Amino acid sequence: MGCIRTGIIFMPGTTQLKAKDILYRLKQSNAQSIVTTDALAPEVDSVASECPALKTKLLVSDHGREGWLDFRSLIQSASPDHTCIKSKTTDPMVIFFTSGTTGFPKMAKHSHGLSLRHSFPSSRKVLQLKTSDVLWCLSDPGWIMATVETMIEPWTAGSTVFIHHLPQFDPKVIVETLFKYPITQCITAPSVFRMILQENFGSLRFPTLEHCAAGGEAVLPEEQEKWRQRTGLLLHQLYGQSETGLTCSTPRGSQVKPGSMGKAIPPFDVQVIDDEGNVLPPNTEGNLGIRIKPTKPIGLFMLYENDPVKTAKVECGDFYNTGDKVTIDEEGYIWFLGRDDDIINASGYRIGPAEVESALAEHPAVAESAVVSSPDPIRGQVVKAFIVLTPQFLSHDPDQLAKELQEHVKAVTAPYKYPRKVEFVPELPKTITGKIKRSELREKESSQMQRQ
Length: 452
Prior knowledge:
Layout: H1 2-6, H2 19-29, E1 33-36, H3 41-47, E2 56-59, E3 69-70, H4 71-77, E4 92-98, E5 106-111, H5 113-117, H6 121-127, E6 134-137, H7 144-157, E7 160-162, H8 171-180, E8 185-188, H9 190-198, E9 211-215, H10 221-231, E10 235-241, E11 245-249, E12 263-264, E13 270-273, E14 286-291, E15 303-304, H11 308-313, E16 315-316, E17 319-328, E18 334-339, E19 344-346, E20 349-351, H12 353-361, E21 366-376, E22 380-389, H13 398-412, E23 421-424, H14 438-451
Parallel strand pairs: 1-2, 2-3, 6-7, 6-8, 8-9, 9-10, 22-23
Antiparallel strand pairs: 4-5, 5-15, 10-11, 11-12, 13-14, 14-17, 16-17, 17-18, 19-20, 21-22
């Protein structure tokens, strides 16, 4: 909020970033300042010398650290007088790092229009927050959902925000918290609701909870029905991207069609389009497109920072192509079919294969690897690595080596990116030009899971 008021562009980061991730983000963005806590300060210090643009390091802690400014004492000594910068709707406000399939994360840059759009009546209708509401959004602070649902939406409505410093998703702690505190609305990834349903809890009739919403991946109709039976509450789907913010939803009080992610939220004009940008008729599979011509709607991202090629690539005729395959029925309800690329969506975390493959490549055992999504009953998808070993590691114990590689990935990149499944293969399927056919591996993985 301080950045918004002073006109500084901020870039939220997940708490699980490692030195390599931090270095990449600092160098790509040329960030001049970083704010973090004790946990990540050593990681920052290990790469700071490689980031000439970085001038200021702010530490939020009870302890001092050499080379860092003390954020809390600076806040206490700051003047109470402050004049907000007169920002325009079109001025840049925030950059979200979003994973890609053929490289490292892209920087999706948003204007102050992102805040403005989420104060529109059409956006306010989704949760219908009141001043008496207590909202708990379990999204990691690095993602756009946290910015929108833990700050912009409740701030606009004058609601109370509930925050829990959960080191990891623990269904028992989440259920205890919903019983103990007067939380009225809860938003998280579908996998969290799935984890809760898989535990043998005596009662899930929470005393104050009135509304639940899930975003980040598709919600299965069976899960919606189970949640309704156990809690007495409907589970409403939300859909959006780092590039778009909240795009589609089933607003509170409206009809829930199990399995659908709801309808488009104005001012977005959402259509199903083909690869040339032509609008397709209802119940036809195509790409989810958001109309950007003649006028780009408020709240859609400005561009991919420093990447005009990728920015141009997602423009498809008069539309922004989200890369998600969907259908729309006659009533305007949208049905998600899957990603048009290789993004892995595990427990609401979007993971690009290139990031995991790059980490694996640093281990001497790995000659080559391909990373894809694998269906999982709890998380929806998990990361699976197909690995071709170097000759000297062929005789090693496969189970032990798999564990070693998993720990290696956790150590060099954010732990949520590690491959929960590892399969050693003699070779990877490739095109004539030498590109790995990830789609073939995904299909093999899906068909194997179906047979099980």
